[in-house]
UniProtKB/TrEMBL annotation:
The lineage of its organism: Eukaryota, Metazoa, Chordata, Craniata, Vertebrata. GO terms for molecular function: Wnt-protein binding. This is FZ domain-containing protein. GO terms for biological process: canonical Wnt signaling pathway; cell differentiation; non-canonical Wnt signaling pathway. It holds the Pfam family Fz. It comes from Anabas testudineus (Climbing perch). Residues 22-140 form the FZ domain. Keywords: Developmental protein, Differentiation, Disulfide bond, Secreted, Signal, Wnt signaling pathway. PANTHER family: FRIZZLED, SECRETED FRIZZLED-RELATED PROTEIN 2.
Amino acid sequence: MAVIFYMTLLAMAYSSMAFDIGQSTRCVAIPNQMKVCKDVGYSEMRLPNFLGHSNLEGEVVPRSEDWRPLLQTGCHPQARAFLCSLIAPVCLDTFVQPCRSLCVAVRDSCAPVLACQGHPWPEALDCDRFPAEDDMCISPYEKFSHFAKDLPKPACQNCPSMEEGPAMKTVLDAFCHHDFAVTAKIHRRRLPMGEPEFEVEGRVEFIRQGPLLPYDTQHLLQQWLLINLRCANVLVRPGRSQLFVLTGFVQPDGTLALARLFPWHKKDANIAVATRKWKHHRC
């Protein structure tokens, strides 16, 4: 998925270099099927857009879906606003591009996601091509509370250790040595284009909660899978689900890192015993 997405992203960015801001444009309603840019605060967009696309059904709508994998990672809270200002620019009397500062903020947060998958931020989306803050443009804004900033966040990391059929002591040691331990079922399905998609099924159960929050952990693990696709690809075969015991820690910069993964099969009595013993276990 990462390779397909990056190549499409590069092609879209490259086409934007040919866009002439002085060419004739028209305003059209943002269609319902363009889910990436629905409910962005306005209902009409200008065509051609800043990516040089003028055909709504043939180019704009299908190409907008190519940004969905990046947006799903939650790499930046304004990534959607930045991308939609290029894909579906607001229809006003003048062209309104994203500010250079917004591009920089999104790039600095989202480029590491692409780098995690082996690709750089496309040169054609060089932030220097966007207007400075003193011009009319879409600027970054702060709307999230201090509490939200302190929540753990997934990040790119080396693939964690995965061990089949561990001994009970191995599992208990992992619980002791890491900040948290949870059980989660990971499902892998295939999209029509043959791209793998991962999701955390059902509830995440806490063995050791540590710094994690009940309402945030399932989403947190989901984002970890989307960011660390190369690791996720080895966890579950396509069309299958697998229950895991996951242990890890929150690093000083607030990012979550998984450390040990234990696939929990029905025959793994040692894992079941370890989770029962943990309530009374002394590290």
